[in-house]
Specification:
By secondary structure, this protein is of the alpha+beta class. About 65% of the residues lie in helices and about 10% in strands. Strand 4 and strand 5 form a beta hairpin.
């Protein structure tokens, strides 16, 4: 078998197309039946029947074996032309030739077209030099006319088949491009969802870890002094209440960002109602509140800001704040000290953040290993989003240091989150 069937049109199955070809082949056989009655002298009836059958009927299988069928139809057609006093144009050959450029490479199809034209010309040359009733000896004029008709028929059939193949190829290319674009859009949507989930997990970790660390420290203080210093315990419990309310406020704002925009409409509230419930994301301007909460948790933060803080994109401002928040939270949880230093250095093209402590928790527990989990990873991911970097490690002797650097002029497009 020469080649697989190309994509079918109009929803027809291969069996339906073969049935159509059989019907066309039967009609062509009716056109050639006169060959039997008008055959030259000395030609047996069975021979003319066989020639007609081979010249026309194989065309019904042109889609299955195009090369083989073309060879049979061309050779038998030439034989029919040579013995017939009234030869007809090569209709069967043109019918088969249509599928040749559809199924075969262009070079092979061109060679078959050229070979078909040459063999057809040879058959008509034999007709021209053979005496036939009605044409006398030769019939050169009739042969020339038939050659022109048959050549034009076969060539046009080849060109139509080639044009259809080109159109199908272009349609397939368009479908492939559309499918590839759809796959790329799906991959981009999945990547965006994955990035959104990662960003949400970072926000949740920063809010929950920081708040719960402060609440745990203050609850421990309240439990320790409630019997001897009830006023101190009351102050710690009040701080726990304030810290938890602040955390709930941030959590509510974060969940509001995740809520579907149609939810408010279904509940009778428009977009303005939902937007009003949101609060601006924290930034470096809110470090004072962070210092105050850390102090309530038992860790004094010495804050130093050097240089004039430039107007930062909201996303970069939030990332810088979260890095400091996470570093201070780690001091409260791991450093075993009551104070740390936060330094913010604002330069023309770089924002540098440094958080250091002199506690024994970091070094005693193996440096960065003490912060195993999402803390250091989250800081580095936030910095990487804006082309920055984070270095974290123990200081010689005692203490731990976290340094983050953000390029200001080369930050990515602000996400606003």
């Amino acid at each position: 078998m020469d080649s697989p069937t190309p994509p079918l049109r109009w929803g027809l199955r291969p069996g339906h197309w073969i049935a159509v070809d059989c019907a066309v082949a039967a009609l062509l056989a009716l056109l050639y039946v006169r060959l039997k009655d008008a055959a030259g002298p000395g030609i047996p009836s069975w021979a003319t029947d066989a020639i007609v059958a081979v010249a026309v009927l194989p065309a019904a299988l042109r889609r299955c074996w195009p090369r083989t069928v073309l060879a049979l139809v061309v050779v038998a057609g030439v034989a029919a032309t040579a013995i017939s006093p009234f030869p007809a144009p090569s209709l069967a050959v043109a019918f088969v030739m249509y599928v040749i450029p559809l199924r075969l490479p262009r070079r092979d199809a061109l060679w078959l077209l050229a070979g078909t034209l040459l063999v057809t010309a040879a058959g008509l040359a034999v007709f021209a030099v053979t005496p036939h009733a009605g044409y006398g000896t030769g019939g050169i004029g009739k042969a020339a006319g038939l050659l022109l008709e048959s050549g034009l028929l076969v060539t046009v059939a080849w060109l139509i088949g080639y044009s259809v193949r080109q159109q199908r190829g272009q349609a397939a290319d368009r479908r492939e491009q559309a499918e590839r674009k759809a796959r790329e859009q799906l991959a981009e949507a999945r990547r965006a969802r994955s990035e959104e989930r990662l960003q949400i997990s970072r926000e949740l970790h920063d809010v929950v870890a920081h708040t719960m660390s402060l609440i745990a420290v203050q609850a421990g203080v309240a439990s320790y002094v409630i019997g001897t210093r009830p006023e101190e315990a009351a102050r710690a419990l009040s701080s726990i209440e304030e810290t938890s309310r602040s955390a709930l406020h941030e959590m509510r704002a974060l969940l509001g960002m995740l809520r579907d925009g149609e939810t408010g409409a279904r509940n009778g509230a428009g977009p303005g109602t939902r937007d009003a419930a949101l609060v601006p994301a924290p930034g470096l301007a809110d470090l004072g509140s962070l210092v105050q909460r850390a102090g309530q948790g038992g860790v004094r933060v010495d804050l130093s800001v050097r240089g004039e803080r430039p107007g930062l994109p909201a996303g970069l401002d939030l990332a810088a704040y979260r890095v400091i928040q996470e570093a201070v939270t780690n001091v409260i949880k791991h450093a075993a000290t009551d104070r740390c230093r936060v330094t913010v250095v604002c330069q023309e093209d770089t924002l540098t953040l440094e958080v250091t402590d002199d506690g024994s928790g970091g070094a005693a527990s193996g440096g960065e290993a003490s912060f195993a989990g999402n803390g250091i990873i989250g800081m580095r991911e936030r910095a990487a989003m804006y082309g920055g970097e984070v270095q974290a490690g123990p200081l010689p002797g005692r203490g731990f240091r976290v340094i983050a650097r953000f390029p200001i002029s080369t930050g990515p497009m602000d996400t606003g989150a």
